[in-house]
Design brief:
The protein has 166 residues and is α+β, with helices and mostly antiparallel strands. The protein folds into two domains: 2-57, no CATH class; 66-140, Arylsulfatase, C-terminal domain (2-Layer Sandwich), CATH 3.30.1120. The chain has five helices and four strands.
């Protein structure tokens, strides 16, 4: 899973961000806009779920975490598991994966980047800590739901032309 969620963010701003600086911290794509506004306009109170990454870029301690939510797909007959809500939370060098409200997997990403050693039964306090963080995120983050849409013939044609439908 890290291959699809671990994406580098490259920024360049001579005089503001040191050339060649590599920051090893957790961030989400939703943090990009608040970071740009913080640097460009010194705007600190951006009303969004994201946060400025300035502290991480300046190598100051952060309590950054990332939450990944898998899209729920209800209409895939051969993969009914995709209809179950699944989340992952990354914090303090660990990743907890929760499916349908149940913790399933816990990895120490600093020692096990390939996610081969499930520590769920060995690190119960870390599991509880991350579960609490995920629950807090769910309570403070608005959810958007989608429904299956009936497409018009012209929408179907356009999606086929783009390669989204066969």
């Amino acid at each position: 899973m890290n291959g699809v969620i671990h994406i580098p963010l490259i920024m360049s701003w001579p005089g503001e961000i040191s050339e060649g600086l590599v920051v090893d911290d957790v961030a989400e794509s939703i943090d990009v806009a608040p970071t740009i506004l913080d640097y460009v306009l010194d705007y600190k109170d951006y009303p969004t779920q994201g946060q400025s990454l300035r502290r991480a870029i300046q190598r100051q301690p952060t309590d950054n975490e990332a939450v990944i939510q898998r899209a729920i797909i209800k209409h895939v007959e051969h993969r009914p598991d995709l209809a179950l809500p699944q989340y992952a939370i990354v914090r303090e060098g660990h990743k907890l994966i929760v499916t349908d409200g149940k913790p399933e997997l816990l990895y120490d990403l600093e020692k096990d980047w390939e996610e081969e050693n499930n520590l769920l039964n060995e690190k119960k306090s870390m599991t509880s800590n991350l579960e609490e963080g995920l629950q807090n995120w769910k309570e403070t983050t608005p959810m958007i739901t989608t429904e299956r849409a009936d497409l018009t013939p012209s929408e179907i044609k356009a999606l086929k032309a783009l390669g989204y439908l066969e």
